[in-house]
Amino acid sequence: MASPLPARARDDRQDRSVKAVLGPTNTGKTHLAIERLCAHSSGAIGFPLRLLAREVYDRVCKIKGESNVALITGEERIEPPNARWHLCTVEAMPSRPDLAFVALDEAQLAADPERGHVFTDRLLHARGREETMLLGSATIEPLVRALVPGVDVVSRPRFSTLSHVGAKKLSRIPPRSAIVAFSAEQVYAMAEMLRRFRGGAAVVMGALSPQTRNAQVAMYQAGEVDYLVATDAIGMGLNLDVSHVAFAGLSKYDGHRQRRLTTAEMAQIAGRAGRHQKDGTFGTLAGLGAGMGGHDPEFADEEVYAIEEHRFPPLTRLFWREAEPRFDSLGTLIEDLESPPPRAELASAPPAIDLAVLKRLADEADVASTVRGRASVQRFWQVCSLPDFRQQGAETHSRFVARLWQDLRRGYLGADYVAQAIAQQDNPSGDIDTLQGRIAAVRSWAYITQRPDWVLAREEMAARARAVETRLSDALHARLTERFVNRRTTVLMRKAGGDASLLPVRVSEAGAVLVDDEPIGHLEGFRFVVDPLARAADRKLLLAAAERHLPGLLSARADALIAAAAEPQGLALEHGALMWNGLAVARLEPGKSVLEPRLRLDPALGLLPARQRPLLVAALEGWLARRIAADLGPLARLAEAARAAESGPDLRALLLRLVGGGGVLAREDAGLDRLDSRQRDLLRRLGVRTGALDVFLPPMVRAAPLALWCSLAALRGEAPAAPPANLPPVVTTRALPAGYRRAGAQAIRVDMAEKLLQAAHRRRIGAASRRYALDPALARSMGLATAGYAALLRAAGFRVHMARALADAAHGPPAPPLWDWRPPRTAPDHRTAAPTAPPTSAFAALAELIR
To answer: Which of 59, 68, 272, 509 is 20 to 30 Å from 258 at the Cα level?
Structure first.
């Protein structure tokens, strides 16, 4: 008989170290393999699912430490530099002769039409230096003995008993049960029915991402739901606390036809019931009706016997495909992949998706023409081997592969291109099917980024793909939970039994109203809003619970608000509203004056007890009064002085205009010439400064007082433009901000304008002649342009005299402009034309702006 390994050297001495541990589910095979792995200095185990590899990886990390353990799958690679123990998917198992221990889990999958050839290759060739272990069903025993000479076969019995209990209606299925269906539509229908009958169910399907399946299984294992609805993916090694498995059907579509499950497949699924020493049961669902398949499934007597006694017909052949084809050309590659198997126990594998894509693209001249040379053919085959995570078929998948090849044949995929492709899927919104599609797409990119020679910045891109898959998986888990788990109803009925007064209600820091940590609504300020996702049948109970408990909750919240109002920073004033923790608790309305606004409470505060409402009003009014006194105290003193009889009508008019202007008034509008010396002295004692151009209160030319005054004046529609946040000395803006005056095309703060004018007057007083030069350096340091400085000087009565231009034959710098001052008798006429300056003068640019 020909050797099954024509392309590789065989060592029968190594095969004598191969042990096949065979038996039904719940025999501890995987646990034994983990023990043997940890007992060796190095090793690897190949699993059929990424989910199982991750589960065992976490277990081994606890034993050996994360720095010594690697996780290798097509979509994820955690491989520390010194890792000695490797947990992998079968496709990603490393080919390393230096590993002391190697194990293959679920070896009977070598008979699977889609992936069987990969398992067969590992069964024939994957060997540990010291020990090799094959784990699987007893059905593969004859073929293992034939293909692996000298193998030591160990049969293990099931730890617990598995019994058939017949058919049950869905409403009679006991807790801690798994219902198995064979289509997504049937899974959803079952989960919807359990949601109505029993409060909900976890959902496990092969189309879900591993993270989502983990989250759903964890929800079931934690007892948050008592039922699990799954496809046959549940049969592949998931360790669950399941007491009963109910089959919603006994046939499935295998990609080619609708067929009845084999007894081995039935047993693999039913074997999830009962773990360790705990017995389990299995059966079918009754009363499904036309909408669930048309008839109730039933086990045949011989099938029940085979499942309970673990007696199944042995496998007669395993699928095989050449694992090391030649890459001389596309034709040679395809010929080797379709070559017949070398042993009678092996059968040619049905065309898998990778071979179908390869043959389809090889027939396209524009693609085939780009594949030249051994290295190019090998790289092209690697691209064609990209799994079809989206399950869109060979034609659609081949278009994606062809597009990928156009970039990879030239080298690497650019990081920007890959990042953009990953980012396109980073959207956690949408329904269940939409999220599943996005997860499948991002898993393709996760696989691509794990290839060592495909992507620049590979580690960064792989991390991005994993992060997006995690976010999408979390969103999908949330959608599944929202749709198929009614936690709120379960908690309500469990705690209250229909009596709202028994519900324990509390408010979270975020304002959510919770019953036993399940949200029933939220507080918007002091108003209760029922959760919009609540069923109509629950709304009455939720509202009753809120009405029963909210007065006490609102009272406690009002006490916290009163306490916050006693602190200067406990509240905030924003856009005419008093804010507490981001909530508007009251609004300001115009009062008798700008400094005396009225306070109107939010209508929701009307639900407070009568004794507490006046206390809250007094606390809020007190906070507002203290805020106005702290920031606008100087203005308040002006208003009080204006009411005094000794002020007189002229001073009273001036003070009221200052109050209405936020502490700033143009001098020409102040009427200072009508005040006597006593009134001027009173004005100085009030802190009012009389400047060259403005009469103003210096404390009011600060950010906080100006902002508050603008907010209060806006209530009456009297406020100018709000000042800049940091009050710079000079701004350029069309609207004149409060506390500023115009200076050409700019605006300058009134106290800074007074500082510049005082400096100009000191220069005037100290000058030896009637005309003198003024240095614009101080103005420039404030940000005021020379033109703006000149405009400010002219407004204060200074006049400029431009020097004559130099004669044609003369040389030297031009003479600076000279200034003099004449007290303005009337308001300056800004329409007066400016003198013409020589083009070389420092003030030449001022001509148009001075005008």
So the answer is: 272
The one-letter amino acid at 618: A
- The DSSP output letter for 513 is E
Q: Tell me what pLDDT residue 526 has.
A: 73
Helix (H, G, I), strand (E, B) or coil at 77: strand
Distances in whole angstroms, Cα of residue 769 to Cα of each of 46, 278, 765, 773, 805: 101, 113, 10, 10, 21
Distant-in-sequence, close-in-space partners of 193: CB < 8 Å, separation ≥ 6 = 170
Contact 369, 409 (CB under 8 A): no
* DSSP character string of 328-365: S-HHHHHHHHTPPPSSTTEEEPPPPHHHHHHHHHHT-H
Cβ contacts of residue 652 below 8 Å, gap of 6+? 642
Query: Of the candidates 665, 654, 592, 659, which has an alpha carbon nearest to the alpha carbon of residue 632?
Result: 659
Q: Which domains does the chain have, with CATH numbers?
A: 12-155 (3.40.50.300), 162-309 (3.40.50.300), 322-484 (no CATH), 499-565 (no CATH), 576-719 (no CATH), 747-850 (no CATH)
Instruction: Kindly give the parts of the chain with pLDDT less than 50.
Output: 1-14, 290-291, 294, 493-494, 496-500, 827-845, 847-851
* E-only strand ranges, 716-772: 730-731, 740-743, 746-749
What integer pLDDT is reported at residue 832 of this predicted model? 39
Strands 69-72 and 77-78: antiparallel
Question: Exposure of 365 by Cβ count < 10 A (0-12 exposed, 13-18 middle, 19+ buried)?
Answer: exposed
Neighbouring C-beta atoms of residue 608, cutoff 10 Å: 20
Question: Model's pTM, two decimal places?
Answer: 0.57
Quick one: pLDDT at residue 542? Answer: 60
- Compute CA distances 763 → 788, 793, 846, whole Å: 19, 13, 21
- Residue 609 tokens read as 């007890």
pLDDT at 199: 74
pLDDT computed for residue 290 by the predictor: 45
